[in-house]
Predict the structure of 1-deoxy-D-xylulose 5-phosphate reductoisomerase.
Amino acid sequence: MKNLSILGSTGSIGTQSLDVCRMHAYSVKCLTANKDVKKMETQIREFNPELVCMMNEDAAEDLKTRVADLPVKVTCGMQGLIECATYSGADTVLNSVVGMIGLLPTIEAIKAKKTIALANKETLVAGGSLVIRLAKENGVSILPVDSEHSAIFQALQGCPSKDAVKKIILTASGGPFFGKTLSELEDVTPADALKHPNWNMGAKITIDSATMMNKGLEFIEAKWLFDMPNDAIEIVVHRESVVHSAIVYKDNSVIAQLGVPDMRIPIQYALTYPAREESPVQELSLADYGKLTFFEPDYKTFKCIDVCKKAIALGGLHPAAANGANEESVKLFLNGKIKFTDIAYLNEEAMLNAPDKTDFTLSDVLEADRIAREFVIHNYQ
């Protein structure tokens, strides 16, 4: 029986993770959320966790009253989040928290020798070498939940050695604005950007998909997860979101992972690995699609990809700065403070403003994140 701690259980990945748990009767020991008390109460009553955390203190107090009849401990804030990430009764931590707030609980879960099912991009984008080194030191597996990284992970099963791999191909849906010019994106509204053609996701990641910052962040993640040089990672736009990513081997064989665009497939594989189990997801019918299409990304229009490529090429704290800047830029856009096209500009300027350190600590990462956020807030007007 797998015992799980699910961080970010009321979000898109979290709720789909619970769909998988429901089918396989996994034991859910801990749940965490930001402030959605109503949904958390429903989850508690169904899955009977022993410990829950609400990041918002008022939400935690409200939840305590709502579930006073149940034997569940309710905590709040970062301390509570870390308590759930390190809970002795859980062997696997699924981290689907959105944003930099997910970095510290991942690090603490690794120190507690938990298996990590990772959906939080910021852990590897900002933490990178620190996180990978810590995982190796503690003998901890980091299993990817992102559909693209899960696809690569699956395509690598049976690979004799890393030397056999020529390159990674990361596929991208292209988002809602595929084919648009830069001038056409000037007047894009948040409502326009939140209409993703293929995936049902939270607001922040949907905007990241629209700017293609999401793919840039995944580029950085792929480098750390699979220990690949930057020039061995390629991005291809694939509108149908059926081929989730691929590996090109030295003999030029290409092995790809295909499936309907449903996050429950990679979520389940991270939880059942190395086994394969029955899934709540429908089978892919290639005949129904008829054809699959692939395109080069438009780097001139979707500049966020290059922001991330530059960040990882510069190394050090630049990826953390790019990520922190993006979180603030997306908030500003969603609140109507900046244009859609301002996101890439602010992200790049803040990234280039990052402290120049190659040998850095967790404190340095958090400081670079803070500096980047302040840069965006002070320079967006």
Q: What stands out?
A: The mean pLDDT is 96. The chain is about 45% helix and 15% strand. The two ends are 53 Å apart (CA to CA). Residues 87 and 275 are 25 Å apart (CA to CA).
